[in-house]
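User: Some background: our group keeps a shared notebook of sequences we're curious about, and every so often someone picks one and asks for a predicted structure to add to the entry. Today it's my turn. The entry only has the sequence so far, pasted here. Could you supply the structure so I can complete it?
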Amino acid sequence: FIHAFWCCDFVCHAISLTGPHVYIVMQTSNYYDSVAVQQPASSAWRNRRIDHNQVKRLLLKWIQQRMSHVCRICDLACGRGGDINKIHEVFTSVPCDCIDSSKESINELIRRSEEVHANTHAICADVLSHKLPKNTYDVVLMNFALHYFTYSQESINALLGNISASLKEGGAFAGTCMNWRTLHECKSVTMYDRQCMDKIDQTPWGVRYKYYLPGCVDLDECVVHFPSIVQLAFKHGLYVVKHRCFNGFLQEHGITPLASQVNHSYVLFVFKKIAVECVCLLYIAPHPPCFQVGG
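Assistant: Of course. Here's the predicted structure to add to the notebook entry:
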């Protein structure tokens, strides 16, 4: 698709996988294909949507204020393109590669890109097996999808390695995920084995639960044990510089949450890509100079 001021092109990669990841990819792709075709009413979960959109928009602005020049963005597990208008609003005209395994979701993303005249490159591919171009992106985003990659240490390690290699030095990996500390309080969550949470520090991977939000999600997910994510990310040169619950982040910006009880179950995060030599130095001086943790 070509327009005088914007463009949106589309590539579909064949998904050829082996091992347990096959089931996860096919399950999520098939489910979100059906959701993309029969989307929930815009009035559904209204306050939740408003707050979550506010958080993601403010998160993009938080990154923009701390990065002098953004040339290319990647939105991993982008779904139906619900964030493409926010990305376009904050990073106007910056090209964005949008990757998702659901073909119907990608089709909806393309439609939304056309509406806002966003400069997107839509790719239908499995996020884990798709090799991202090296040293290309200033920002890589992943919203509400980390739980599909924490079923094993190998899978999340591969994901973080792929993301790190694709980021330029000083680039940001940012997004949102479930708050593992308050997971047991979330009404949408049914734990398969609550005792697993008692030893989550020792065995953080593959702890499953059912997440059900009528019209939006009805799938198995895995706990995102953030302390373990931080340790693995650090090995790939990704240093956590922001980790905040939704309510706290909104209040930081003078906004009163509309769905504070729901927001209690979610956190946002930002990792900064640092040079290998800086990783060694951080064992002595643990805070990088350009960002302030929790700032």
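Suggested note for the entry: Confidence is low (pLDDT under 50) at residues 1-6, 14-18, 283-295. The longest helix spans residues 46-64.
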